[in-house]
Amino acid sequence: MKIADDIAGLLGRFGASATGYLEVDHRPDYKEPPPAAATPPAATLETHAAPVQAEPAAPVPPAEKVVPTPLSVAVNNTRPAKAERVEPRIDDASRPAAAEPVQSPTASVAPSMLRSLLMEAALARQVAARAHEEAAAAHQSLADGLSLFTPARVVAVVSMKGGVGKTTICAALAGALNCDGRALAIDLDPQDALRHHLGVESEPDAEAAADAGLAGKDWDASLRVGAGGTRVLPYGAMPVQARRALERRLEEEPQWLARQLARMNLNADDVVLLDTPPGHTSYLEQALDAADQAIAVITPDAASFMVLEQIERLFEGRPGCSYVVNQFDASRTFCQDMLEVLKQRLGARLLGVVPLDHAVSEGLAFGDYPLLEDGDSPARQEILAIGDAVAAHLQAPTLAGRRSS
Amino acid sequence: MSGSGTQQAASSGRLQHWAQAITDRVEGMSKHARHALQAGALLLSALLVLLTVTVPFDFHSQCIFAAGCFIVALIVRRQAGRFPVMLLIGLSLTASLRYMYWRVTSTLGFESWMDAMFGYGLVAAELYALAVLVLGYLQTAWPLRRQPLLMNAPPSAWPTVDVFIPSYNEALDIVKLTIFAAQAIDWPQDKLRVHVLDDGRREEFRTFCDSIGVNYLVRDNNRHAKAGNLNAALKVTDGEFVAFFDADHVPTRSFLQICVGWFIKDPKLAMLQTPHFFFSPDPFEKNLNTFRSVPNEGELFYGLVQDGNDLWNATFFCGSCAVMRRSALMEVGGVAVETVTEDAHTALKLNRAGYNTAYLAIPQAAGLATESLSRHISQRIRWARGMAQIFRIDNPLGGKGLRLGQRLCYLNAMLHFFYGLPRLVFLTAPLAYLFFGAQIFHATALMITAYALPHILHASLTNSRIQGRFRHSFWNEVYETVLAWYIMGPTLMALVDPKFGGFNVTDKGGIIDKKFFDWRLARPYIVLLTLNLAGIAFGVWQLALGDAHARTTILINMAWTLYNIIISGASVAVASETRQVRSEPRVAAELPVRITLEDGRIVDGTTQDFSQKGLGFRVPEGVEIAPGTRIEVTLFRNQQESAFPATVMFRRGSLLGAQFGRLSLGQQSELVRLTFSRADIWASTWGSGQVDTPLVALREVAAIGMRGIGELGRATLLELQALLVARRRPSQAFEKSMEQQR
Predict the structure, then answer these.
(1) Which of B177, B501, B637, B695 has the highest local Cβ count within 10 Å?
(2) Number of neighbouring beta carbons within 10 Å of residue A28
(3) B675 touches chain A (CB under 8 A)
(4) What pLDDT does residue B5 have?
């Protein structure tokens, strides 16, 4: 047993031995008094989710308010709680419709300009709704013919490099979009990590493990229910041979994933989230093919910036691709600057900025899922906002083109 | 140098071997033989002592004898080990007893009533001083130096401990520290209960205790002050052991594990006391600027006296930083309420009931020293009164249950507080001759020198050797002089009537924001100083006028008066209160710290001092951190580390001072764990002051004395100026009104 240096120092000084000293490290739970201000001052580092308040001259409003306009005017959304969050954003610098990238929002906007923007947004919404109906009709006729496409809406969560928190975001979004129990997440990453992010334990014996997951015959039966009621199809604990066989199949059948999805018992209300391994893999290809929307997860650092080009190349020609910045540390000026750069580069394609919260990664060890359960966590708030944005996009399918190919 | 060292080691080794052989031989003998041997040895040594002390020498023989003893003492005092101490004590006792015998038999032939009055007064004072000297040698000759004993049973077998933190009117900010530290004590969580006993019944304390999960106890009255508070809490708790901490005494995390081991080893042990360590300077250290260079007043008691008491099983409870066995405490009726020094009285009762008490000279808790001289004096008056009360109502010399060693140790502890009158006598004795010409010493000046000087010098030397690490020479006189006038009254009254109410010195607590001279408090010292200065003047006048016959007498008296002037001057210096810059004193400590700046830079530094509110630290050369920067301070303890938000407040070269931001309760607790709770935080500065050298100490005290006189002079001038200005102003106004009338 290693004796702490101060104990050893004390006892050594008085000629006694330190063996036999018991160190007790008990931390009782304290009931903290409520914070004085609604937004915690940047000085306290209790949570690292402090929004950018230090510089009042910042042109960008705080992280949790970075939400594109569709949310603020999308009144036909199913989530009633959102109405409360909508109010402050109307006061905020108003943004034009989603299609135009936002450069530098003005601090105060004349009411007339706001009205015209709102009218444009309403118009765009109506157009989109009409297009959706047409596409749905076309889609239905198509679906009757070929069971190649699932009626459910599919979102792929991708990244070019590892460690950005893609699986975390995927799990969290699944939870956020799971309003009526209609969301499910599918793990295409051999790491098999998604299940752990949703609190689903591994199968006890190898045989069951082999059947559960992607390698199984019946994907519906292999679905497991995790935290927040989200259903998850784990990758499964496959032996190496099986995995190689699966990957060969992916190479040979470019429509394998789409067909699997179509075979599942899903309807138009379902939302499927696909977690992919990092980098340009065959899993990624098929996921992008099968998805209505793709979300690339990046972190505000130089390494992520350098692979942005690769992601953009990947997304070429595929509409409905957006970005989420994860692990944003507001107390670091470098992070803030980096975020600025990314915002300028990505514009409206940036869906949201999730703050760095150690509780998330630590929670994984203890079976806590703050992104799915902790209502007070700023990170979760952001995830919910991103989820809303995703839901909104999914309802305005401009992507019929992909499916009809 | 090393040669003689090994020679010494070899000789002491041989000596030990020889002593061991004799002891073995004696133990081998039969019981009767041993008793006979002991009785014979006692008789022989008694005769020897009697002979040495009472043999009358003429002047020359006395001088030679005294010189011889002194030379031996000078040689022996540099040698390490316990045996030289014994020898020094023997020589000192010889010199002092010889002096006293001669004094009592040959110098008391007085002629006039005035001579008799002063004369007997002086002899009485000297007898008191001798008694305290002898008892002091007994108490401190062989400190036990108890070692810490860790628990050797598995944690499931450890006893339950209640930690009591009584509080009355201390601010939550101060008590918070103690409560967090008590929670952080290394002890199985289910067996450690922390209780805050709030006699002030304050709501914010209740809320605080509730939010961090410690017990909050109140009672509906305040009878018997702290003792009553503790007794009320004892009734509603049930831990096997009780630990006591005053509201501002912060324990380290190793406190219980170091102390409780002894209770398991000795089932009869009822109380174990640890030192009261202060991390802020007391009024002496503050006003005389001797913090950490001269040992403070408490170090003699906690460093040596209690350790010596431990040998005789006479350690007494000091009210805080101690652990007691509940069964023993309840057996004597809880904490004693009959006197104002309830702690010492409780320990006396425990000893009488047959229990043992112990002392561990390892500082495991620290607190704030008294902030101002007036508070300090109030506290000492209370102690002195309490001890006098115990002397009167529960005298250790009488009553049953105590062994001889215990009786004498307790007696000395109480007798010590009667120094008021004797000290004043010593400070004014030579004036009797210089003013009134009273012949209080019926002997020639030379004989006085031959007898008194060895007595004084030997006592000085021996005390310097025994106490050198814990008290410097001549500081004793300063401490006593400062308090003498104030404790004289209470102690004498308490002797006469123990129930007599207190003497209150109004205290000026709080932050002393500017330097001021406490005139009211310093009055006794100013009087003494003035009298002695007048005495010197008289002496000079008499020298100029008077006959050569009396010259040596005058000179001796003047030398004594000069010494008194130095001591009085130093006391006056203590009354000149310096400015207290910080409202919350900081603990000086060097701990590793890591600073993280907003731009991501990480700088490793060392702390210089810390408190709950902020810390000072040093960074490597060349690192630029401007005041106002927000930083994150990471402190470590072993593998643990924690970060705290802070803002840099000032910068001086590579020294920076930072103030912590708003910390959550968890962070505050964490901060305490990483700083105040460190097991070695106090031990590293304990007993590390400079060892005493009498001559250097004399020079220091003399310098302080001169400074004190200078301060007094300056303060007097300022007051006079202020008075003059006040007197001038009305005349100006008068003139103005005259002008207007015209």
Answers:
(1) B177
(2) 11
(3) no
(4) 52
CA distance to partner chain A, nearest, from residue B184 (Å) = 8
Residue A69 has a pLDDT of 39
Structure-token pair, residue A151: 């009626």
Q: Which two tokens stand for residue A39?
A: 């937004």
How many whole angstroms separate alpha carbon A118 and alpha carbon A240?
55
Instruction: Tell me if B683 and A20 make a contact (CB, 8 A cut-off).
Output: no
Which of B188, B211, B257 shows the shortest C-beta gap to A30? B211
Q: Which two tokens stand for residue B339?
A: 């006197």
Question: Which one-letter amino acid corresponds to residue A29?
Answer: D
Which H or E run contains B278? strand B277-278
Per-residue pLDDT of B210-242, as tens digits, reads 999 999 999 999 888 899 999 999 999 999 999
To the query of whether residue B190 is one of the catalytic residues in this protein, the response is no
Residue A76 and residue B274: Cα distance in Å, rounded?
A: 73
C-alpha torsion sign, points A250, A253, A255, A260: negative
Cα separation, B260 vs B163, in Å, equals 13
**Separation of alpha carbons B369 and A224, rounded Å:** 66
| 241-300 in chain A: CB under 8 A from chain B | none
- Residue numbers of chain B with a pLDDT score lower than 70: 1-12, 501-514, 579-583, 729-742
Tens of pLDDT, residues B27-76:
777 788 888 888 888 888 888 888 888 888 888 888 898 899 999 999 98
Shortest alpha-carbon distance between residue A25 and chain B (Å): 7
Whether residues A44 and B662 touch (CB distance < 8 A) is answered with yes
Q: Tell me how far apart the terminal alpha carbons of chain B are, to the nearest angstrom.
A: 93
B616: nearest Cα among B644, B577, B580, B651: B651
Q: Is the dihedral of CA B215, B219, B220, B225 positive or negative?
A: negative
Q: What is the pLDDT of residue A89?
A: 35
d(CA B178, CA B205): 13
Q: Which chain A residue has its CA at the smallest distance from B190's CA?
A: A26
Res. A80: pLDDT tops 50: no
Q: Pick from A11, A30, A32: which is nearest to B148 by CB?
A: A11
Instruction: Determine the pLDDT at residue A139.
Output: 60
In the three-class reduction of DSSP (H, G, I as helix; E, B as strand; rest coil), residue A36 is classed as coil
Average pLDDT score over chain A = 74
Spell out the residues 6+ positions from residue B496 whose beta carbon is closer than 8 angstroms to its own: none
pLDDT at B159: 95
